[in-house]
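Structure request: Thiamine-phosphate synthase, Anaerocolumna xylanovorans DSM 12503.
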Amino acid sequence: MQIKREELLLYAVTDRTWLGNETLYSQVEKAIKGGVTFVQLREKHLDKGHFLQEAIEVQELCKEYSVPFVINDNVEIALEMKADGVHVGQSDMEAGAVREKIGPDKILGVSAETVEQAILAEKNGADYLGVGAVFPTGSKDDAENVNHETLKAICTAVKIPVIAIGGISRENVQELKGSGIVGIAVISAIFAKPDIEEAARELKEKTKEVIHD
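Returned structure:
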């Protein structure tokens, strides 16, 4: 599945933290209606049965809106439910092994923090890179900061599209201007907001300014 650069403009990573009385399905739908262009299902604590059920439901929703849908880390579930692809970190299965498992037609996203990791991921079949954390973040305990010079160097070193991730908000996204990224990946900047749809809409407009300048 060929990924288009514009599909990576506003990449939402799910998180159950802010569900309250809502379902993940309803929150993801609001995010898509607000302009999210790509969805990654990230579940660290659900058992396989519930994870699979939720993944299938969210995938159907994404199909309805023609938004690419990938699973975080769990290659087996991504294959079982025929997700559009999978996103893996540096501590997960090595990118080349994932590519072998999922075949040439699925999307493979890889997290990178250094130019070396980025070049290797591209060589091993990654379709895009998630680089970060570009700002301090509370979403991942082990997130290392990637300074903006490194982000720029990674964008220059690889031909595949790069998205920035980690601590990005409506207030600081402008600081990424000129880095070479094609989009941003966010969690709390959308899902922690009282009005998810409006938060996505505002963030998308601000990100467009960053990308097109």
